Amino acid sequence: MQIEVTRDVIAQLKAAARQAHPHECCGILYGEGRQITHAQPARNVHPTPDTHFEIDPQALIDVHRAARAGGPQVLGYYHSHPESAPHPSRTDQEMATGDRRIWAIIGMNEVMFWLDDPAGFQALSYEIVAA
């Protein structure tokens, strides 16, 4: 499956990872269909943010409630791997729900996108498009 991601979102994800370093950044991805048009940072509330992430639960409640009310649609989530490649870690795999949402992982100044599939993460190809 191929998705589209705006140039601004790619830049925002890389900037968020640099700013959060040495901790993991995290947030929510919005868009329509297979196009990611916006990324919203969220607070990483995990007690060990240098190696793990947990999106602030209240932020998740708020964005899903807004989406149900007609607001921007949540396509997935993002987080960074400050010291490793942008591939799902063992922890990521254990935390995955198989909900078919998109995960963006930022690592080593590279962004990769993954589908959280019930059979495990699947790499997604993507095209960068104008906003």
TrEMBL record:
<keyword id="KW-0482">Metalloprotease</keyword>
<dbReference type="Pfam" id="PF14464">
    <property type="entry name" value="Prok-JAB"/>
</dbReference>
<dbReference type="InterPro" id="IPR000555">
    <property type="entry name" value="JAMM/MPN+_dom"/>
</dbReference>
<keyword id="KW-0378">Hydrolase</keyword>
<dbReference type="InterPro" id="IPR037518">
    <property type="entry name" value="MPN"/>
</dbReference>
<feature type="domain" description="MPN">
    <location>
        <begin position="3"/>
        <end position="130"/>
    </location>
</feature>
<dbReference type="InterPro" id="IPR028090">
    <property type="entry name" value="JAB_dom_prok"/>
</dbReference>
<keyword id="KW-0862">Zinc</keyword>
<protein>
    <submittedName>
        <fullName>M67 family metallopeptidase</fullName>
    </submittedName>
</protein>
<keyword id="KW-0645">Protease</keyword>
<dbReference type="InterPro" id="IPR051929">
    <property type="entry name" value="VirAsm_ModProt"/>
</dbReference>
<keyword id="KW-0479">Metal-binding</keyword>
